[in-house]
């Protein structure tokens, strides 16, 4: 709606200006109210999403701390040990290891020693030791099949 439309209806110049000003104020008020409602709804959804993300991150951090503590104790099967671990988390953020987790893992290791290696970390002052083989050292007389010519390969494997 514009002023020329109002004037064509026979409305006076001052009345047309007043009608347009009132229409503009009404539209601005409606837009401001809609914007306010959308902003409030958005802020509420953002707050809920943020809380859910914090909660999820905290539980993931707790899960990692439990697995780290069980691994440090020498658990043979972390999933099985975690399933029967008697640890209740009281909530709140933590740094490092949550309070009481080390004691819970220690009591599990003492009660169910089959879940842990023979020298689990809480069995005294012994730390976990990893045992394995070391690769053989190279020497000049090491045999490499890739260094053979085709005729040497056939002779070596009896396919002459």
Based on CA inertia axes, which overall geometry fits?
Answer: elongated
The helix-strand sequence is HHHHH
Task: Please indicate the percent range of residues in DSSP E strands (runs of 2 or more).
Answer: under 5%
Give helix % range.
55-70%
Decide which structural class fits the backbone. Answer: mainly alpha
- Uncertain segments: none
Number of domains: 1
Number of strands: 0
Tell me about the biggest sheet?
Answer: none
Average predicted confidence as pLDDT: 82
Give the count of helical stretches: 5
User: What is the rounded distance between the termini?
Assistant: 101 Å
Rounded to an integer, what's the Rg over CA atoms?
38 Å
Notable traits:
160 residues; 0% strand
Description of the structure:
The chain has 160 residues and is mainly alpha-helical. It has one domain (3-129). It has helices at 3-8, 13-73, 78-84, 101-111, 150-156. The model has no long low-confidence stretch (mean pLDDT 82).
Q: What's this model, at a glance?
A:
The chain has 160 residues and is mainly α. The protein has one domain.
Structural topology:
Blueprint: H1 3-8, H2 13-73, H3 78-84, H4 101-111, H5 150-156
